[in-house]
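user: can you give me the structure for this one chain? tokens are fine.
assistant: on it. calling the predictor now.
[tool input]
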Amino acid sequence: MNTGIPTDYVCIGGFSLSLKIAIASLKRALKLYGKNIR
């Protein structure tokens, strides 16, 4: 039984997805921060 391989792929996929979401929210926050400074 190779249950380790599929779960590893799922973990990597979930990590990259959360990373993309975190980067997107960070960019949005930086935009709002820049507007507030000016």
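assistant: here you go. Residues 18 and 34 are 24 Å apart (CA to CA). Helices lie at 4-37.
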